[in-house]
């Protein structure tokens, strides 16, 4: 899912030119890694968290623990109407800056470190609970206390920079549910501000209570992701300082009144400070300050725990993860734990490749392991899925199974979840168990879920695809019968269906008509997503022994043929009466402009989007015409690497045996769009989807048909790779992939030639050697 991609088109060249001067992994940083105990040959050393922080990649370089509830990230989003340096923006620049993420590589005014963040999403939300170190007289207006910065460093679980305005070094690290900040100040007055007003969410209310000179607790409201009217939800926190402040209190942004003198407003701004202790401060745009009288190079650390359930749980999370047998862990010990956690996961795949290739590969794998992320507390509590109501419980508990969130399924069903199923089946199983539990709590499977809220973003029924695909790959330790009934409910309920709101027409006509759609409804896109989901449900039905259901859903999935227009060779919007929508512009929808029939794309981007029946589409077009149109899509610039509907297209040549062409297209796209620079992603990472594309593409295999456990094969970008298989799920020990030096068009499994460039998931997880 993307947001304002037209800006990416406009800025892409300048961003690439700017980012080409960026250098990652300096010698000094490598020495730091070694001093902190990280082996120089560990996979985490190759991760460059700055990749994707430009070109609308929407990633952040902050301290990130794998699939964590908390990440501590620098926040430098431009103030509304102004650039990062304070210059007035024109409307184009204003929208580009304000609708982007909390960190943009080109921005240079830092206003704090946020503790609850999203990575690679298309709309602003979260980015809250900001800590900011300052020096000198107390200033509470973020637009004034913001600072430029230099000497940035980032690696898994760690971020460091120097705030030039304050000559203060800021370092941050994180655990699963908490963060630790380490600030090194010059001599004089030092201040640490906790700003609850700043953030990316459209909500800005909060509350706080200062318990002592070393502790503050409270909450911050988030909500309305993508400007949808879903309910808001509070996130709770407890923050502690390693030494007491000499002065502390709360502050609130006050409305401006004419001819009224405020009690006390530092520097004549409109923030009012309240020195207090154990009083509750609530409202919009509030915060707390802690001031210290420091010697030169004095270090102050802040630990901050988070919970989506309660302040008490935030405190439990903090105590459990920042302390060991009542002994406070050091900053470096916490950082090392994050490094170890990343190495444990990243080392599941060991590749033989150049240093640059390793950086691209392991950074992509790193991004693929951020979301979905944990939202359950150390005691097992989590927010239940669904709308709030007086007669419904708000929270559940499962001490034996983590609860996950951030299911951007329109994106991630395509490759993130198949990647997790192959390499991390235990994680994929836990995520599917979460999805099934959510269906019981709210009555429907999730579509685009955020901290227990269904945001209703995007189209289709992607959870059905993910669950069927997971089961068919052999991961079966979840309640598949409950899941199957939820999938059937979504597929067959005609009205009041939040997963398939267009289902009444779809069930009657076999497609979603264009007649009633608004500018973003996307009748063709929606129909194609329903067909894909029906195909997945049909395959699962067959595996579960439901023959009649299997036949029904397979037939429904082939109704894409009703949208196939022989005169254009396109999948075209059709009216309720069966007439084609006219006039028809295949290029309509470029740069994410609204157009009849398509969501986030053009007719070109969707013309081959029938992944469950590519052979059937080839038959409709004819083999020669299929290849001609496929070539034309790439050669005329109609292909969009930055969005999901067409990202399987470079692999479609394999369906006609043109494996060299698939390999050439894949290698061309890697070279063109993926770089070791901040602009090194094609666009919005979509919770790891563009990164997962790169992981699979560098390995030489890709799941072109989610819901069908088969991979298509092509030339890998690495010399060899060894995937350690989880013995709790798969019979094999290691899957080894090797470049076949003899011929780049020869494929073999266990030294036996493959007749086609396809291989099943079940074969690969037996373990063995795949030569490509």
Automatic annotation (TrEMBL):
Species this chain originates from: Rheinheimera riviphila
One Pfam family recorded for the sequence: Glyco_hydro_92
MF-aspect GO terms: carbohydrate binding; peptide-N4-(N-acetyl-beta-glucosaminyl)asparagine amidase activity
Keywords linked to the UniProt accession: Hydrolase, Signal
Glycosyl hydrolase family 92 N-terminal domain mapped to chain residues: 46-307
InterPro entries per record: 6-hairpin_glycosidase_sf, GH-type_carb-bd, GH92_a_mannosidase_put, GH92_N, Glyco_hydro_92, PNGase
Superkingdom of this protein's organism: Bacteria
Residues of the signal peptide: 1-27
NCBIfam families: aman2_put
Domain Glycosyl hydrolase family: 313-771
Ranges in coiled-coil conformation: none
RNA-binding as UniProt keyword: no
GO biological process: carbohydrate metabolic process; glycoprotein catabolic process
UniProt xrefs under PANTHER family: PEPTIDE N-GLYCANASE PNGASE -RELATED (PTHR12143), SECRETED PROTEIN (PTHR12143:SF39)
Keyword presence, Hydrolase: yes
CC per GO annotation: cytosol
Annotated protein name in UniProt: Glycoside hydrolase family 92 protein
């Amino acid at each position: 899912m993307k947001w304002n991609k037209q800006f990416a088109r406009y800025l892409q060249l300048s961003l690439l030119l700017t980012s080409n001067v960026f250098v990652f992994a300096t010698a000094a940083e490598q020495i730091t890694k070694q001093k902190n105990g990280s082996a120089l040959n560990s996979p985490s050393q190759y991760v460059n968290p700055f990749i994707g922080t430009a070109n609308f990649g929407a990633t952040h370089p902050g301290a990130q623990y794998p699939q964590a509830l908390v990440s501590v990230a620098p926040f430098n989003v431009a103030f509304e109407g102004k650039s990062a340096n304070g210059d007035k923006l024109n409307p184009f620049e204003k929208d580009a800056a304000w609708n982007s993420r909390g960190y943009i590589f080109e921005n240079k005014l830092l206003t704090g470190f946020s503790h609850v963040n999203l990575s690679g999403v298309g709309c602003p939300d979260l980015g809250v609970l900001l800590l900011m170190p300052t020096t000198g007289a107390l200033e509470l207006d973020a637009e004034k206390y913001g600072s430029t910065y230099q000497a940035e460093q980032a690696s898994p679980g760690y971020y460091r920079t120097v705030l030039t305005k304050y000559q203060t070094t800021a370092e941050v690290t994180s655990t699963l549910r908490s963060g630790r900040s380490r600030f090194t100040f010059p001599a004089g007055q030092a201040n640490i501000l906790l700003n609850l007003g700043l953030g990316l969410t459209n909500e800005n209310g909060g509350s706080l209570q200062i318990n002592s000179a070393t502790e503050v607790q409270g909450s911050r409201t988030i909500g309305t992701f993508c400007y949808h009217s879903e309910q808001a939800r509070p996130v709770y926190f407890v923050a502690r300082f390693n030494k007491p402040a000499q002065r502390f209190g709360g502050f609130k942004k006050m409305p401006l009144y004419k001819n009224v003198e405020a009690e006390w407003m530092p520097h004549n701004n409109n923030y009012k400070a309240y020195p207090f202790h154990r009083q509750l401060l609530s409202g919009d745009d509030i915060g707390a300050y802690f001031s210290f009288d420091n010697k030169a190079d004095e270090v102050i650390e802040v630990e901050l725990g988070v919970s989506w359930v309660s302040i008490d749980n935030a405190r439990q999370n903090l105590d459990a993860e920042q302390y060991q047998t009542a002994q406070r862990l050091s900053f470096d010990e916490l950082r090392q734990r994050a490094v170890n956690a990343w190495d444990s996961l990243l080392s599941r795949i060991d590749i033989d490749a150049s240093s640059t290739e390793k950086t691209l590969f392991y950074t992509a794998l790193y991004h693929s392991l951020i979301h979905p992320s944990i939202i359950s507390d150390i005691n097992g509590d989590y927010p239940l899925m669904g709308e709030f109501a007086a007669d419904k419980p708000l929270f559940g508990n499962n001490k034996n199974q983590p609860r996950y969130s951030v299911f951007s399924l329109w994106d991630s069903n395509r490759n993130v979840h198949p990647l997790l199923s192959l390499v991390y089946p235990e994680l994929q199983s836990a995520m599917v168990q979460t999805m099934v539990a959510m269906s019981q709590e709210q009555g429907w499977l999730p579509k685009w879920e955020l901290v227990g809220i269904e945001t209703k973003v995007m189209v289709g029924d992607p959870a059905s695809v993910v669950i069927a695909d997971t089961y068919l790959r052999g991961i079966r330790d979840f309640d598949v019968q409950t899941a199957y009934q939820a999938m059937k409910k979504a597929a067959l309920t005609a009205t009041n269906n939040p997963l398939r709101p267009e289902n009444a027409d779809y069930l009657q006509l076999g497609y979603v008509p264009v007649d009633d759609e608004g500018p973003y409804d996307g009748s063709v896109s929606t129909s194609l997503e329903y067909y894909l989901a029906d195909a997945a449900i049909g395959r699962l039905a067959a595996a579960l022994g439901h023959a009649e259901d299997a036949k029904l859903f397979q037939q429904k999935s082939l109704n894409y043929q009703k949208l196939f227009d022989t005169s254009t060779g396109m999948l075209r919007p059709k009216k309720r009466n069966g007439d084609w929508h006219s006039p028809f512009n295949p290029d309509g929808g470029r740069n994410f402009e609204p157009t009849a029939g398509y969501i986030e794309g053009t007719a070109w981007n969707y013309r081959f989007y029938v992944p469950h029946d590519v052979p059937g589409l080839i038959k409709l077009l004819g083999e020669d015409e299929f290849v001609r149109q496929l070539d034309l899509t790439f050669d005329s610039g109609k292909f969009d690497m930055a969005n999901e509907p067409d990202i399987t297209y470079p692999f479609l040549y394999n369906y006609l045996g043109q494996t060299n062409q698939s390999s050439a297209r894949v290698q061309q796209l890697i070279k063109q769009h993926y770089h070791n620079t901040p602009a090194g992603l094609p666009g919005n990472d979509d919770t790891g989807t563009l990164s997962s594309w790169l992981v699979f593409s560098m390995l030489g295999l890709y799941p072109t048909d989610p819901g069908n456990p088969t991979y298509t094969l092509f030339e890998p970008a690495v010399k060899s790779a060894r995937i350690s298989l989880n013995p709790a799920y798969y019979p094999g020990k290691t899957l080894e992939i090797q470049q076949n030096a003899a011929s780049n068009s020869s494929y073999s499994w266990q030294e036996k030639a493959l007749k086609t460039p396809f291989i099943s998931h079940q074969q690969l997880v037996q373990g063995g050697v795949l030569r490509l």
